[in-house]
Amino acid sequence: MVKKNASLLVKLVSTATKTTKTGEEKLTGYFCVKKRNPKNLPKKLEFRKYDPVVRRHVLFKEEKLK
User: Is 44 within a domain?
Assistant: First the structure.
């Protein structure tokens, strides 16, 4: 019998903001999905990755995947 995989899928959301036409600061909304093993990494993931919306490397933080 095959063991169940312990990895969870998590959503990494960009923390970059973009100014709208009305002058509001909003998140870009860009995200990516990664696998995380909660036994090895009990803390939330944070990566510096490229966000194509703002065209630079920014911090991505883990959120729940709905």
Answer: yes
> Which distant-in-sequence residues (6+ apart) come within 8 Å of 9 by Cβ?
33, 34, 35, 36, 65
SS3 31: strand
Q: Decide if 43 is inside a domain.
A: yes
For the domain that residue 50 is a member of, what is the CATH number? 2.20.28.120
**Cα–Cα–Cα angle for 5, 10, 14, rounded to 5 degrees:** 155
How far, in Å, CA of 6 to CA of 60, rounded? 23
pTM equals 0.81
Q: pLDDT tens for residues 37-47? A: 988 888 999 99
Is 3 inside any structural domain? no
